[in-house]
Amino acid sequence: MTEPLLDIRNLSVTFRTEDGLVRAVDGVSATLQQGETLGIVGESGSGKSVTMMTVMRLITDPNATFEGEVYYKGVDLLALPQDQIRSIRGAGISMIFQDPMTSLNPVYKVGWQIAEQIREHEKISKQGARARAIELLTSVGIPNAAERVDNYPHEFSGGMRQRVMIAMAISCNPDVLIADEPTTALDVTIQAQILKLIRKLKSDYGTAVVLITHDMGVVADMADRIAVMYAGRIVEQGTQRELFYDPQHPYTWGLLGSIARLDRPRPRRLAAIPGQPPSLMRLPAGCAFAERCAYRFDACETQQPQLLDRLGTGHLDACLLSEQRKHAIRTRTVEPELVEETP
Amino acid sequence: MTDDPGTHMAVLQDGPEIAAGQVLLRAERLKKYFPIKHGVLLQREVARVHAVDDVSFELRAGETLGLVGESGCGKSTLARCISRIYEVTSGTLTFEGKDITNYSRRKLRPVRRDLQMVFQDPYASLNPRKRIGAIIADPMRIHHVGDRAQIRDRVLELLEVVGLSAEHVNRYPHEFSGGQRQRIGVARALALRPKLVIADEPVSALDVSIRAQVINLLDDLQDDLGLTYIFIAHDLGVVRHVSDRIAVMYLGKIVEISPAEELYERPVHPYTEALLSAVPVPDPDLSAARQQIVLEGDVPSPISPPSGCRFHPRCRYATDICKTEEPQLTLRGSVGHLAACHHPLSVGARPPESAAAAVTGQ
Question: Which tens digits make up the pLDDT trace of A126-164?
């Protein structure tokens, strides 16, 4: 196996707050290969964004403490001083965010904002940078880019703004693009446009993508490998096929079961996961998902399950149930309508 | 109408006055234009936003009508016209046989009891300085329903109905999670025992697992209380799950209205087809196998909507007639399936379910 482009090893992020320590990310390990798309799925507060913000070294809160390593091309990003991080940020790894309105500066023209980033990383004239900005805007599908380059962010629609963000993110040909809920604020039709664009960038430039989302549909469409996060930890990790056709963790079952799907007959009721995620300040001693899990047993309350390759196929999960038991339950949970409603 | 407070305090399972299946609400040629004004002293109207433009439909007691469409298509404006939060520009609104379009505020009061809303953002729709008990009691106090003790009992009863407990009554909104707040919003909407609940994107701000909880709750409440819903959402999966009938809106108009399952199996309007195909499918094989229609461009401005069929600039079937002549809603396919299109998609196209079964081999 080739050395991964990005190698996150045992990363933990803890915030000191007035009410106590919040362990937002707890021992997360993941790798990203050249040209690959890694999907990170989880609910709000599961630590998926904090993990990737840490990789970008964007968390500057003095109350945050970091443990573990993040290797990018053999360099530990967590140990780098800020000035060296700046040369990697944008040129090596770049990031797009959920809300393109708050991530663009409203008082500068979009062309200027893109050109600024190019000029930060390369020796290039103002005109040259502006020409590149127009080129980039064209490549992300903005019509009349030569005119639109002098527009302000508020003159663009939500989908167009996200395209501008993507143009900015790819302006220095990064190896890794981190997309944090890039389509959550957009309509489905616009979401389809943006996902198509990200796929095109992948095939044109071979960019590796980390896609953070809560939408299982989006990862089914985009990701090669998927990590499911819950309460700061990865609870299951595997290839896209493994996750969708052989999910091992009850939380993953719950996520798949609670979607109102268009590709299946309408179930009478959605299989909702009861309760809500635990507070990160008072995590239980055992499995963090135990109190919402219908299949918990005594060991779940006391023993914290480790993320292990229990099947011997590279498909990792953190659940104490035996493999046979999981298999038996899963057919009932993930495809309940297929089981219940057959006459 | 009886105004004896006692009757409003009766048990929850009380049959609605209009029997299930009868028309509860009728909207005819409803229009809502927002003026755009310029000038300092003399505010001249320079243009109009055609937010809702000639919308007609009927809603029967006990059913759920789903409203879908992209943002800016006018679905929320329509909801606010129906609940008379906005004054309509023209058209009529009939609720329980009474024309309420031009009711004064005073005359509207008893109608408002029967017609309540649940809003999208559970963070913005609850007053952060009020306790939960006061928030849920407010509608009853405003409408002078019941005395203090009765109101208190009703609040506790409502908390239980929406899956919260009596001990929550003295807490503030910030002490609750998003899903719980939305339950509080639902409890408040139910306080006056309404007949029609308009839910405007009630689950969009919630996480997937919580979303399913709230949808199931709304489902149960409909069964128990015989409620009628107008359910607005942009998530087509959610809308399909809750709705009996679905109306698809585009730029202020209903372009297709149909029984729920039929809309998904045999969409007639090209916009519906594109909307359905844009929904990501949580199944990698299916996702890879299907042909996705990616609509180009954005929704045009409702200030100067395109001529003819409003969808024609983005439609892949558009011809010359679409640019000049506006299609009317006409019956396509089975009973109650209407669409406004010059080139309706062939009825009897392969339904998605059989396509799904073919791929997964089930």
Answer: 999 999 999 999 989 888 899 999 999 999 888 889 999
Among A177, A187, A245, smallest CA distance to A216 is for A245
Query: How close A134 comes to chain B (CA, Å)?
Result: 19
Q: Is the dihedral of CA A333, A337, A340, A342 positive or negative?
A: negative
For residue A20, the Cα-to-chain-centroid distance in whole angstroms is 27
Query: Of A189, A215, A276, which has the smallest distance from its Cβ to B278's Cβ?
Result: A189
Residues in chain A: 343
Q: Please list the helix, strand and coil fractions of chain A in percent, rounded to the nearest 5, in that order.
A: 40, 20, 40
Which tens digit of pLDDT belongs to each residue from B187-235?
999 999 999 999 998 988 888 878 888 899 999 999 999 999 999 988 8
> Is B334 in CB contact (< 8 Å) with chain A?
no
Q: Which two tokens stand for residue A287?
A: 């499995």
Q: How far apart are alpha carbons B274 and B272 in whole angstroms? A: 5
The C-alpha angle A325, A254, A48, rounded to 5 degrees, equals 115
Minimal Cα distance from A253: which residue of B?
A: B209
Q: For chain B, which domains are there?
A: 23-243 (3.40.50.300), 250-360 (no CATH)
Please determine, for the modelled complex, whether the ipTM score is greater than 0.85: no
Among B329, B336, B295, smallest CA distance to B53 is for B329
- Residue B180, φ and ψ in degrees, nearest 5: -65, -40
**CB B58 within 8 Å of CB B230:** no
Beta-bridge mates of residue A89: A93
Token couple for A182: 């890039």
Determine whether B261 is exposed, middle or buried from the number of CB atoms within 10 Å of its CB (0-12, 13-18, 19+).
middle
* B207 with A262: Cβ contact below 8 A: no
Q: Quickly tell me which residue has 């007949």 as its tokens.
A: B195
How many helices (H) and strands (E) chain A has is answered by 14, 11
